[in-house]
Write the structure tokens for this entry.
Amino acid sequence: MSDKIERIKTLIIGSGPAGYTAAIYASRADLKPVMYTGMEPGGQLTTTTEVDNFPGYPEGIDGPTMMMQLQQQAERFGTEVRIGMITAVNLSKEVGGIHKVTVDDSVEIEAETVIVSTGASAKYLGIPSEQKLRGGGVSACAVCDGFFYKGQDVAIVGAGDTATEEASYLANICNKVTMLVRKGEMRASKAMQHRVNSIKNIEIKYNTEVDEVLGDQVVEGLRMVNNQTGEKEDIAITGLFIAIGHKPNTDIFKGQLDMDETGYLITKGKSTKTNLPGVFACGDSQDKEYRQAVTAAGTGCMAALDAERYLAEIETPEEVA
Ligand SMILES: Cc1cc2nc3c(=O)[nH]c(=O)nc-3n(C[C@H](O)[C@H](O)[C@H](O)COP(=O)(O)OP(=O)(O)OC[C@H]3O[C@@H](n4cnc5c(N)ncnc54)[C@H](O)[C@@H]3O)c2cc1C
């Protein structure tokens, strides 16, 4: 066995729609990408049954199948997909520098360019009945799944700007939206609070938490509890949306890549360039605004093109203005 450290031209960290789209473009550009899938091969979409809004699937498609097809498409052009976590990074600050990463706390590899597509994880309440019914009426994405509850009664948990935006989005589609706010007031901006307060089919319940999600295979109702009085109340709903935030999977880049206070990576202007040369970020890891498969895929494409241009520039520096 050789002790020589493997050198990769383009390393892709993460296997969601952003990572696979980057892989398709990078492999077709002959960047010989190697992808590490991380703990959730296929990314967030593998946790959902129905994707209805990704262009090109007129009948919709289930998330795991869509991600398998993206993998096959990337592999068709030569992407090497490996199961493994990147557990540490030592990124170069120099143009043309080599980035060092550690896989599964054991193997060190080197990369000329790194595409970060590590996504984000939706936060859930963590109670057993909620976990049991994830995909059976419990969702962390109103824009993705709201349509399936057209004309029905749903509830949403959360008190920030995202929760208020999602509540008003749902109110357009659903019959009634019950909004559970844990405290006596919301965290959302005054403007957003005003918006949800003025929508007739949104009922806001303050000091209220989920006690239990009711239903066996699918959501049939919600048992709410008032955290001041202990009083419980059951309502009939078919969908429960959890909007208590997301956590970008960017901890390993702390101190090296610029990120905002919540951990979303910061990219330059309209590009996917990070603060370090040769390191590009795409998908939900750098997008707290849209968080959709198609936008993740779009920025994945951009990251591969940015990586290709970066490599071309350092290989032919005289052409750089
Ligand atoms: C329940 C649900 C339903 C949804 N439905 C829809 C929908 O219908 N339509 C839609 O457009 N969007 C939907 N979304 C949103 C969509 O899934 C995301 O916007 C999209 O998956 C983001 O893609 P991504 O590639 O940025 O990251 P992700 O899909 O989050 O993938 C991140 C990848 O990075 C990997 N990773 C993380 N850390 C490491 C590491 N250290 N080393 C290696 N790999 C790592 C993970 O294993 C994973 O493979 C839904 C989301 C959820 C939660």
